[in-house]
Amino acid sequence: MSGTATPKVRPAREGEAAAAADLHARRITEGFLPTLGAPFLARLYRRIVRDPGSFLVVAVDRDRVVGMCACTEDLGELYRTFVLRDGAIAAVRSAPRILRRWRRVVETLRYPAAEGAPDLPEAEVLAVAVDAARSGEGIGRLVVEAALAEFDRRGTARVKVVAGGDNAAALGLYRATGFVDAARIEVHEGTESVVLVRSAP
Ligand SMILES: CC(C)(COP(=O)(O)OP(=O)(O)OC[C@H]1O[C@@H](n2cnc3c(N)ncnc32)[C@H](O)[C@@H]1OP(=O)(O)O)[C@@H](O)C(=O)NCCC(=O)NCCS
Known about the structure:
The structure is a single chain. The chain is about 40% helix and about 25% strand. It has about 200 residues and is an alpha+beta fold. It has a domain at about 10-145: Aminopeptidase (3-Layer(aba) Sandwich). Strands 1-2-3-4-5-7-6 form a seven-stranded mixed sheet, with helices on both faces. Helix 1 crosses helix 2 and helix 2 (about 40-50) packs antiparallel against helix 3. It starts with 7 loop residues before the first strand and ends with a strand. The structure holds coenzyme A (COA).
């Protein structure tokens, strides 16, 4: 059978969180989260599935997660719940890595307050990734559009997303799905990122 069948796009089941985390780790090199270790990332994704204010959309082809989009209505609340409910175990498992990278953790948690990024919504597309073998087939657009439909269903007026200034594929995808550039920030020293915002129709 060809590998280009249109995957099924739907909310993730809890058992798919690890596969989505794995896709994140393999495909998203610009962030620091994958460097915190697979158990940490898998726990964060499981929390995203469980948290009523967050959700994970997956594209599934023959039982394989080939694309995902992780979202939250309130990033601060998601991180607070993650630290309170999952933090201890996750931190123990990846403590040395977290300690080495603590500065980056703090920079990332506080970036919405960064200078030059005023009036940004709390709601956020946290990550989008598509299996490298399936890129360019429209799967990224499918998962982002499904995520935006879910934000609309929840009544979320504005949603932000952050992409590396040199990540042409991500910037192209977000601009193609209704996001507009809102600010340029330095999330990590020396690395420029673009914050884009999408308003509900
Ligand atoms: C970004 C990513 C999710 C795009 O997924 P994709 O399935 O390949 O994208 P699609 O085929 O759905 O393309 C949708 C739109 O994105 C844009 N796009 C996709 N790849 C692009 C590229 N390399 N350059 C510029 N624009 C691109 C196009 O505007 C395209 O619209 P079109 O179909 O009208 O041409 C994928 O490249 C990926 O997983 N990248 C690594 C992870 C990452 O960087 N994620 C974002 C940071 S969180």
